[in-house]
Amino acid sequence: MAFVENAWYVAGWSRDFSQELVTRTIVDQDIVLFRKSSSEIVALADCCPHRLLPLSKGKRVGDTVQCGYHGMTFDGTGQCVRVPGQDNLPSNAKVRTFAVVEQNGIVWVWMGDKTQADPTTIFSLPQFADPNWHAHFGDALKIDAYYLNVAENLVDPAHVSFVHPTTLGNAASEDVPVEVSTDGDVITAWRWIRNAPPVGFFQQFGNFSGHVDRWHYYHLHLPSTAVIDFGSANSADSIREQDRDSGVRIFAIHFVTPVDSDRTIDYWMHVRNTATNDDSASELMDTLLRKAFHEDVEILEAIHRSEKRSTHRQQVRIAIDKGPNAYRKRINDLLQVEATAA
């Protein structure tokens, strides 16, 4: 399966990278990363050009990587700087490098043409730098499923009532229509559930005693970053759409990184406007979100297994698929642009 390569993908949190060699597979390409003595993170193709041994099987030598087979050594630019036993360095002894940007505690890698890598296009959220909000990094959730299925699940509020009935949803939202906007660069699906019992998540975290008005806004940024803006407020307050900050509001952010056609990693975190200085709140929220996200994993992996067995079965599309349909079309458009350029 094809992947969009000219895009920024998350390779991990800043805390994941030190001077040790770290391997990643992104869009079916193996890379090795490490933090130089200057603190800059570099990413190289994980393959020595001599006998194709992964460089990660070698070792770090200063700010270079030494192949574990015959000792050829490469610097952070991918240039060979040493061949043991000879003085001349082959002109074609180079390793491909990838553009890397570290910001907001997140490490991004551009997997395509480096000349097109524009750091200003990297996803960010204003609340990252807002002292009234708290950002908390979660896990790297491994999913045995194709990344497009994972990403389109994150622009689909309708599944919440059925997949997460005790955590993020309940029966009160089953028949509430989903609204979708595909006009801008970001695909957005959303709905409000008014005057309903709080879902399990906010029963434990929001301490609501009566009915609430709650919302779900799913924003999908190409190629595969999803922001879920969800929260609750007391129904008696009758808050408007633009007043969501007055309730308990949370952004669950999913950086969906394709590994290959059968594997995906979802690097997830959350940003919240409540209990901003309470570490125990972060731990509680992690526990609740992990439970909900593993409910998604069970569904997505089952779908993936079924798709691999049923290649000729036609899927039925319904009204709630407007967001996922638009997403698939835009991904196909990006793939065609890259294929034409190639």
List the helices and strands and how they pair.
Elements: E1 8-13, E2 22-26, E3 29-35, E4 41-45, E5 59-61, E6 64-66, E7 73-74, E8 80-82, E9 97-103, E10 106-110, E11 134-143, H1 147-153, H2 160-163, E12 179-181, E13 187-196, H3 200-205, E14 212-221, E15 225-234, E16 248-260, E17 263-272, H4 279-309, H5 322-341
Antiparallel strand pairs: 1-10, 2-3, 3-4, 4-9, 5-6, 6-7, 7-8, 9-10, 11-17, 12-13, 13-14, 14-15, 15-16, 16-17
Explain what this protein looks like in three dimensions:
With about 350 residues, the chain is α+β, with helices and mostly antiparallel strands. Helices cover about 20% and strands about 35% of the residues. The chain has helices at about 145-155, 160-165, 200-205, 280-310, 320-340; strands at about 10-15, 20-25, 30-35, 40-45, 60, 65, 75, 80, 95-105, 105-110, 135-145, 180, 185-195, 210-220, 225-235, 250-260, 265-270. It is globular, with a radius of gyration of 22 Å. The model has no long low-confidence stretch (mean pLDDT about 90).
